[in-house]
């Protein structure tokens, strides 16, 4: 059995000894052995602790916090100073899962030295185990510089939310022969630069399959179909917090948002009616 799966088992997580930490080497082993990797975003200690106990392999402190935590319209306004406290909380909550932090927009684009500086801050101040940055060929040098400094890097190609204005909105990438060739070139550039895994977001399944078969490192799907080596989702999407239109690739496993709203309404009604607190909630 792959170590990445053994570490995720209930017997491992419930052991009296400290659970073994998933490392980047376990990602490559999982790809070799054909075992799927699971990832969820997390932005706080409580959710990180829950996902860790459930056996999720890695947690991404994504710049999606811009939408889910800070209420921004896009991920673009998020800053390093905003993400570091969130990443620190997740790192404290994850006893066995690998914790990856997004490098936010504007914190690595100017070149390798800026990228290394930002990545170093996340490693030193937040205690994460790896960083992620968006882009293919255009960020290969940044990726290489970070990796050469001993910091693991997860890549991200296909639809890259930080570039949504340049891409013309939420547009599926990797369509047609030219699109697949560009996707392959970007993915190979990031692999060659030393990344240990790469996210493929919003690309057709056949394109994702081609990339997955062409790479030696694992591919992680965000709306890229079943042929990738693992799956990554924003946890507030699949948990039912997101209202209105949700991406097609999201499966909602719970309706926690509605459950919280119902509980808040019940509390408000009980307080107004005097049903809470009752005698059982009083101290003698």
From TrEMBL:
Pathway in which the depicted protein is active: Cofactor biosynthesis; (R)-pantothenate biosynthesis; (R)-pantoate from 3-methyl-2-oxobutanoate: step 1/2
GO BP terms in the entry: pantothenate biosynthetic process
Residues that coordinate or bind Mg(2+): 63, 102, 134
Location of the region described as Disordered in the Swiss-Prot/TrEMBL record: 1-20
Keywords linked to the UniProt accession: Cytoplasm, Magnesium, Metal-binding, Pantothenate biosynthesis, Transferase
Pfam families: Pantoate_transf (PF02548)
Compartment(s) where it occurs, according to its Swiss-Prot or TrEMBL record: Cytoplasm
Gene Ontology CC: cytoplasm
Binding site for 3-methyl-2-oxobutanoate: 63-64, 102, 132
EC number: 2.1.2.11
Catalytic activity: (6R)-5,10-methylene-5,6,7,8-tetrahydrofolate + 3-methyl-2-oxobutanoate + H2O = 2-dehydropantoate + (6S)-5,6,7,8-tetrahydrofolate
NCBIfam families named among the record's database cross-references: panB (TIGR00222), PRK00311.1 (NF001452)
Entries under PANTHER family matching the protein: 3-METHYL-2-OXOBUTANOATE HYDROXYMETHYLTRANSFERASE
Subunit structure: Homodecamer; pentamer of dimers.
Name listed for the protein in its UniProt record: 3-methyl-2-oxobutanoate hydroxymethyltransferase
